[in-house]
Structure prediction request, 322 residues.
Amino acid sequence: MTQKPKFMWLVRERIRTMQYSYFTEKNYVFWIKRFIHFHKLRHPNDMSSDEVNQFLTHLAVDRKVAPSTQNQALCALVFLYKEVLKCPLGENTINAVRSRLHRNLPVVLSPSEVKRLLNYLHGIPLLMAKLIYGTGLRKSEVHRLRVKDIDFERNQVIVKRGKGNKDRLLPLPEACREELQKQIEFVEQLHLKDRRENINGVEVPYALEIKEPNAGKSLVWQWVFPSFRISTDPRTLIIRRHHVHPSVFAKHVKKAVEKAGINKKVTAHVFRHSFATHLLESGADIRTVQELMGHSDVRTTQIYTHVLNRNPSGTLSPLDKL
Prediction:
C-alpha cells in the first residue's frame, strides 16, 4: 500500500511546479507552518477564512508585525487555499485587523560615506557593493548574476527575472568593468576545474533544464559570484556549485561599517537606496530612476524624494538665523 505524501511536500511540489523561487518557497512554507501551529495542528482542509482572519489578526495585534510581513503571510495562505487545496478564499472574506503602516524613510549614505565604506571592503564583497551602488541592483539580483548577464560590448548588466518576474537593462559602471572582467576570468578557470572533476552543472531555469539538460555545464550559465564550495541543492539534493551565500556579503558590510565609523544601520539594500537618492540629487528624471530600480509604481520611487540632500521647503531654520 503506497503511503500518501506528507502535506508540506504537496505544498513544496506545487510551488516548484509553478516555478516560484527558492526564497518564495521558504517564505510560503514558513507561514503555512505558522498558520497550522497557531491553530493547534488542525489540517487546513478543516479551516477556512475565519481561521485565516484569526491568524492574520494575531500577527497584527499580538505580534505587531509590519504590514509587509502580514502581507507575506496572507499571500502564502491565499496560495495554499487556491493552488494546493483548490478551495480559494472568497474575495470579501479576508477582514483581519491590518498591521499599522509606518512610513519609514530609507537609510541613505552620503557620497563621502559610500567612498569611506568602499575603502574598507575588498575582493568580491567590494565588487558586489560597487555593482549595487553603481546600478541599483537588489542584493538577490547581484547574487544571481550569470556570465551571460554581463554585456561588455554594450556596457550593460542584464537582470533576468527580477522581482515581479521582470527583466531590465542597467548601464555597466566603467569603475566596475576591469574588476568584472577579472572576476569572469576567475569563473572561467573555476568552471574548467568543475568540468574536469565532472561536477554537476549549476542550477538553470526549469524549462531550460528539460530542453537543454547540459545547459548548466556551459560557461554562459555560470554564476558571476560562485561559492568556493560545492554543496547540496536543497530542492533537488543534487551536489553542485551554487552562488556565494548572501550572508557572506552581509558580514563583510557589517565589519566595514564599524571600521568606517558610520553610525547608521547599513545593509546591502542601503547601497541601492543611496543609488536612487544620489541619482535624483544629480537631476535624474524620476521615471528613469523608477525604470532602473525596477519599481512597478512610481510612488515607490517617490519615497527617495523625501530624503534628498536639501530642505523640503527651501527655507532656513529659525535657529540658524540667531
